[in-house]
């Protein structure tokens, strides 16, 4: 029991250091604030994988009452610590990701055409911006077949992550 | 669903929901990948900037070292005295009349075998264009033409005022370019994209044409050529790198000597003078001020317009000429430094001669300010405090070294009195600039904007200041201006607005740290003076890469440099790790690892974020630190003969060592004697408290003296240990052998072989 508490304290201390590090990368004016538009990047680079909706909720929690466009560290730290302690927004395992692609490819061809990918990504779920779409296409599309062999694509992205 | 594709399936409501969720999941995953990429990009940038910052601090250490020598070191032998004299005494620059009648270039013959471009004066547009083309084809301009061109350039520059007034009435548009740093590819790209200079197309190049890049000579020649062809439309501002003292450290001197073995010295001499004649600023339509660094709350444009800019030979030093012993004595008495005997070093920082800056000293953690380009003077410290501090830490060391080495004490010989003519000619030399004049120029060449209000000393660079939005506002109002355009700092996008869009930083050296690291940019101003930015990036290769690949590539370069830095501090890291491992398990927790690394390296980097790239163990696992340090060593070039601690010291101090060697090599021959090498090393390593035996150094020296002639080729020495970041370009244009790793050296930047 005492051990558990110690362990949690140590964990929290480590989380704080991690959070501070990530926050400081974007604290360009060195005044403990970051632009709200960078919060998503910070949270995701701390190991979390929130949806856009999750992100909006989080931001609502950490924003000032009168939104200034900036997030203060003092508000960010406790909220982010909770997120890490509760292990919220866990990253998506590879097999789950694969199944998601397979849902979009019921014929089990092993690939999606460029048009299909664009349609799903820009019309379904939490639609991509044009920039995001182009970014995905640039890496995912096999230029010869003009399609996405999603299993290979996933493998490539995952290797890169590590 | 069911678009034009030949998919006959119809989705039931359930399937539609499934598809929605699947898409959402994929998007969520993808956005995380992109975020992590973005973070890696930022971290990479931080690495480059912090290494550059650390390099600037090297210059501070160097000044400490020289200050110590000046203040406290008593040469105990003939040789030591000679060495110090070589270090501290600048060669006399020729008198102005000598420059005028410059038979300098006329005596230089161009052989029939020469296949490079020919220049004749007065220069015509065709000549300048042909020159660009010749350089593009990697031809070299003959020394005669270089000297001639510099001579003509000087003649033109002398007529110009300190602040060039330019109007958009004559040319319809003005294009302002920032730092080029010897990157010819970027200059060519700018001319290609924007058009060649012409009466309708005016250009302003805002300083830092040379150093770091490999084609500084070419860039400078092209710029001067167009300046002579279009004197009214082509304008150059001086940057902090248009300075012979800075060039010594950052590669331009070396490039000139390598490309012009016979006449290089002459070229460097005339360049020293030509740089002083470059205008300090350009003013467009009395509304847009263009200068290299920035401003301070003391910036006085009237004073700047009136001073004799030629007096400011280098912003790295206050003194302008070699003083004879008498003059030095008098000056020193006036300055109360209390040192005896030896002449005053010409490269010592301003702080030794000037009172401390009226600006508030910085309390801000400097290393997170993210400064990019070059070299400062020393940190403005009270000279007495500096002496005391240095003395405390080194005096005993040196004594110990001497005793160990068994150096006999030889009584000092009297320095021969300078001849009468020498004394006379020095007296006829230029008058010194006043402190205030000097400071004004340093401010505009070295300052950087900051986000916070106020104005404080730029401790990172050691000269100039950080100026806030209120300083900008005050200046603009005082002189009725609407925009300040400056350069001096590398920006990822090639440009950056700040201070409510009243200050524009423009930087034209793309891929500055590494291929793919940043874009370059230039800005166009029409009669309405609305800035229109154009970006570019020299290097087609990057265009075909995906964002991910581009970032990976730059990142790898940064990490290589970082690993080299870690390796250079292996002993200290080991000691620090052991402190966290009292039980001697050989393991260290991730958190402790990060703390230890930061306390040794002091780079202010996000080590926890970087850890996965540097350490090959699971994120939460403890690390076997000894074997990790071993893997770092493996990645560095191996030199079996060389003691590993020596190697460490070499790595850690490479840029200072290079600078010292080049200073000693006062005739720029590229060689120093074995003896000088050993002595220098001894002095330096004592001061740096390096744990290196004398034997080791002797072995090292002998192993470098490849042809056994008692001389060491400085360049070979540095390259043998991959101590230079940028590759040397040998006379025939071939690259250095084996330099595949890209070490971001302190005196250069990482540059992959193209």
From TrEMBL, chain A:
Gene Ontology MF term list: calcium ion binding
Name of a matching Pfam family:
EF-hand_7
Superkingdom is Eukaryota
* Keywords of this entry: Repeat
Entries under SMART domains matching the protein? EFh
Cellular component aspect of the GO annotation: sperm principal piece
Gene3D superfamilies recorded: EF-hand
Q: Which residues form the EF-hand domain?
A: 14-49, 92-127
Cross-referenced InterPro entries, in alphabetical order? EF-hand-dom_pair (IPR011992), EF_hand_dom (IPR002048)
Name of the protein this chain belongs to: EF-hand calcium binding domain 2
From TrEMBL, chain B:
Q: Which SUPFAM superfamilies match?
A: EF-hand, Metallo-dependent phosphatases
Positions of the UniProt region annotated as Disordered: 318-381, 405-435, 731-754
Broad enzyme group:
hydrolase
Pfam families in the record: EF-hand_7 (PF13499), Metallophos (PF00149), PPP5 (PF08321)
Cofactor(s) required for function per UniProt: Mn(2+)
Q: Where is the EF-hand domain?
A: 652-687, 692-727
Q: What is its EC number?
A: 3.1.3.16
Q: Which domain of life is it from?
A: Eukaryota
User: What InterPro entries does its record include?
Assistant: Calcineurin-like_PHP (IPR004843), EF-hand-dom_pair (IPR011992), EF_Hand_1_Ca_BS (IPR018247), EF_hand_dom (IPR002048), Metallo-depent_PP-like (IPR029052), PPP_dom (IPR013235), PPP_phosphatase (IPR051134), Ser/Thr-Pase_EF-hand_contain (IPR012008)
Gene Ontology biological process terms, A to Z:
cellular response to hydrogen peroxide; detection of stimulus involved in sensory perception; negative regulation of apoptotic signaling pathway; negative regulation of MAPK cascade; visual perception
Bias kind Low complexity: ranges: 351-364
CDD domains, alphabetized? EFh, IQCD, MPP_RdgC
Q: Which GO terms describe its molecular function?
A: calcium ion binding; Hsp70 protein binding; Hsp90 protein binding; iron ion binding; manganese ion binding; mitogen-activated protein kinase kinase kinase binding; protein serine/threonine kinase inhibitor activity; protein serine/threonine phosphatase activity
The answer, when asked if Hydrolase is one of the entry's keywords, is yes
Keywords, A to Z, come to: Calcium, Hydrolase, Manganese, Metal-binding, Protein phosphatase, Repeat, Sensory transduction, Vision
What is catalysed by this protein? Answer: O-phospho-L-threonyl-[protein] + H2O = L-threonyl-[protein] + phosphate; O-phospho-L-seryl-[protein] + H2O = L-seryl-[protein] + phosphate
Q: What does this protein do?
A: May play a role in phototransduction. May dephosphorylate photoactivated rhodopsin. May function as a calcium sensing regulator of ionic currents, energy production or synaptic transmission.
Give the PANTHER family listed for this entry: SERINE/THREONINE-PROTEIN PHOSPHATASE 5-RELATED, SERINE_THREONINE-PROTEIN PHOSPHATASE WITH EF-HANDS 2
Tell me which family the UniProt entry assigns to this protein. Answer: Belongs to the PPP phosphatase family.
Recorded protein name is Serine/threonine-protein phosphatase with EF-hands
Q: Which organism is it from?
A: Catagonus wagneri (Chacoan peccary)
């Amino acid at each position: 029991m005492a051990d558990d508490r110690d362990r949690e304290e140590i964990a929290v201390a480590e989380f704080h250091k991690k959070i501070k590090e990530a926050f400081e990368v974007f604290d360009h004016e060195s005044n403990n604030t970051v632009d709200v538009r960078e919060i998503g990047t910070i949270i995701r680079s701390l190991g979390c994988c929130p949806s856009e909706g999750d992100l909006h909720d989080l931001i609502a929690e950490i924003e000032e009452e009168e939104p200034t466009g900036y997030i203060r560290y003092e508000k960010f730290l406790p909220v982010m610590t909770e997120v890490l302690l509760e292990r919220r927004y866990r990253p998506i395992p590879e097999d789950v990701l694969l199944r998601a692609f397979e849902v979009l490819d019921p014929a089990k061809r092993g690939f999606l055409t460029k048009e299909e990918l664009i349609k799903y990504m820009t019309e379904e779920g939490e639609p991509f911006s044009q920039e995001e779409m182009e970014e995905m296409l640039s890496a995912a599309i096999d230029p010869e077949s003009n399609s996405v062999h999603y299993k290979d694509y996933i493998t490539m992205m995952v290797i890169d992550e590590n | 669903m069911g678009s034009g594709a030949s998919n006959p399936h119809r989705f039931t409501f359930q399937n539609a929901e499934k598809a929605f969720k699947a898409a959402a999941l994929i998007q969520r995953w993808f956005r995380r990948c992109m975020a992590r990429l973005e973070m890696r990009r930022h971290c990479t940038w931080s690495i480059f900037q912090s290494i550059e910052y650390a390099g600037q601090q090297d210059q501070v250490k160097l000044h400490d070292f020289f200050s110590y020598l000046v203040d406290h070191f008593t040469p105990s032998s003939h040789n030591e005295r000679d060495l110090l004299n070589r270090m501290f005494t600048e060669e006399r620059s020729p008198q102005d009349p000598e420059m005028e009648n410059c038979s300098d270039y006329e005596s230089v013959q161009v052989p029939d075998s020469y296949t490079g471009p020919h220049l004749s004066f007065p220069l015509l547009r065709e000549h300048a264009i042909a020159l660009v083309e010749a350089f593009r084809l990697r031809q070299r301009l003959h020394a005669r033409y270089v000297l001639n061109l510099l001579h003509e350039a000087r003649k033109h520059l002398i007529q110009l005022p300190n602040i060039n007034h330019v109007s958009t009435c004559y040319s319809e548009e003005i294009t302002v370019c920032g730092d080029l740093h010897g990157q010819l590819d970027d200059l060519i790209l700018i001319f290609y994209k924007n058009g060649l200079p012409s009466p309708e197309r005016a250009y302003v190049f805002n300083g830092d044409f040379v150093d770091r890049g490999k084609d500084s000579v070419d860039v400078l020649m092209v710029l001067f050529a167009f300046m002579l062809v279009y004197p009214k439309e082509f304008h150059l501002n001086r940057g902090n790198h248009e300075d012979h003292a800075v060039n010594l450290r950052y590669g331009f001197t070396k490039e000139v000597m390598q490309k012009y073995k016979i006449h290089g010295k002459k070229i460097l001499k005339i360049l020293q003078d030509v740089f002083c004649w470059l205008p300090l600023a350009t003013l467009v339509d009395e509304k847009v001020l263009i200068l290299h660094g920035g401003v301070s709350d003391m910036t006085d444009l009237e004073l700047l317009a009136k001073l004799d800019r030629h007096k400011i030979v280098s912003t790295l030093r206050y003194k302008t000429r070699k003083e004879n012993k008498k003059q030095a004595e008098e000056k020193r008495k006036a300055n109360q430094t209390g040192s005896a005997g030896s002449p005053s070093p010409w490269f010592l920082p301003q702080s030794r001669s000037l009172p401390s800056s009226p600006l508030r000293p910085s309390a801000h953690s400097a290393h997170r300010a993210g400064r990019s380009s070059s070299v400062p003077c020393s940190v403005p410290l009270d000279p007495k405090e500096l002496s005391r501090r240095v003395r405390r830490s080194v005096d005993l060391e040196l004594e110990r070294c001497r005793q160990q080495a068994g150096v006999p004490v030889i009584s000092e010989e009297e320095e021969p009195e300078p001849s009468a003519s020498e004394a006379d000619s020095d007296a006829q030399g230029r008058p010194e600039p006043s402190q205030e004049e000097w400071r004004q120029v340093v401010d505009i060449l070295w300052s950087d904007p900051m986000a916070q209000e106020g104005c404080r000393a730029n401790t990172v660079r050691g000269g100039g200041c950080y100026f806030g939005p209120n300083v900008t506002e005050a200046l603009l109002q005082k002189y009725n201006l609407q925009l300040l355009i400056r350069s001096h700092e590398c920006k990822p996008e090639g440009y950056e607005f700040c201070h409510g869009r009243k200050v524009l930083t423009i930087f034209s050296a793309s891929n500055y740290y590494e291929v793919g690291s940043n874009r370059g940019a230039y800005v166009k101003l029409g009669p309405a003076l609305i800035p229109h930015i154009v970006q570019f990036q020299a290097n087609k290769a990057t265009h075909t890469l995906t964002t991910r690949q581009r970032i990976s590539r730059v990142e790898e370069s940064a990490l290589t440099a970082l690993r080299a830095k870690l390796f250079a501090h292996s002993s200290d890291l080991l000691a620090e790790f052991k402190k966290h491992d009292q039980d001697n398990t050989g393991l260290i927790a991730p958190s402790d690892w990060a703390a230890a690394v930061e306390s040794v390296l002091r780079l202010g980097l996000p080590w926890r974020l970087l850890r996965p790239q540097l350490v090959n163990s699971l994120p939460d696992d403890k690390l076997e630190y000894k074997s990790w340090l071993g893997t770092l060593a493996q990645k560095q070039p191996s030199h079996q003969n060389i003691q590993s601690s020596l190697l460490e010291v070499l790595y850690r101090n490479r840029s200072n060592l290079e600078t010292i060697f080049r200073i000693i090599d006062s005739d720029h021959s590229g060689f120093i004697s074995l003896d000088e090498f050993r002595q220098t090393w001894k002095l330096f390593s004592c001061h740096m408290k390096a744990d290196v035996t004398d034997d080791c150094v002797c072995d090292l020296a002998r192993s470098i003296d490849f042809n056994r002639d008692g001389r060491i080729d400085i360049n070979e020495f540095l390259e043998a240990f991959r101590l230079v970041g940028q590759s040397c370009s040998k006379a025939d244009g071939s690259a250095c052998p084996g330099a595949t790793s890209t070490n971001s050296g302190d005196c250069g930047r990482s540059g992959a072989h193209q």
